Amino acid sequence: MKKAIIFLSLALGLFVLFQFARYLFFNAPLRSILAAIKYEEYRQAQGIDARLIQSKKVLVDYKSGTAFVKVLYKDDPDHVYEYHYALYIANLKHPYQKHSFHKMRLVVSTSPKATAELNEKALNSQPKYKPLDIYNNYV
Question: Residue 29, SS3?
Fold first, then answer.
């Protein structure tokens, strides 16, 4: 009887530990934290000062496993900077070669405010901060 109680408590403890690890790995907390860390590295590599951030939001797409960091900068209000983060990218062209881990790329779009106002200057302007080539080889 005593062995059965010990076995059941050990099995239950391992099950709970496994479920917690699975939650951390496959759900938002880990991906959003890693995306925020990678965004800071990317921002520093771009040479953007942290004081220029007007708003920053981290979103996670559960279907694709990708996290997005949407950023508006004070000195470039006409563009929305969307940083795409992937924890793991399989190399489908060459499956026996190295895979990519902890990667981020930048997609810049026109802000909804400029689009709603149909501001021609804003719609045709170039973004102030360009994507980095070394980081933008996402896939």
Answer: helix
pLDDT-based confidence at 63, cuts 50/70/90? confident
CA distance 98 to 95: 8
d(CA 50, CA 73): 9
CB 86 within 8 A of CB 137: no
Q: Is the pLDDT confidence value at 19 over 70?
A: yes
Please state, in angstroms and as integers, the Cα–Cα distance from residue 33 to each residue in 38, 40, 120, following that order. Answer: 9, 11, 37
Domain ranges of the chain: 27-135
Lowest-confidence segment of 46-55, 110-119, 129-138 by average pLDDT: 110-119
pTM for the whole thing? 0.69
Beta-bridge partners for 107: 82
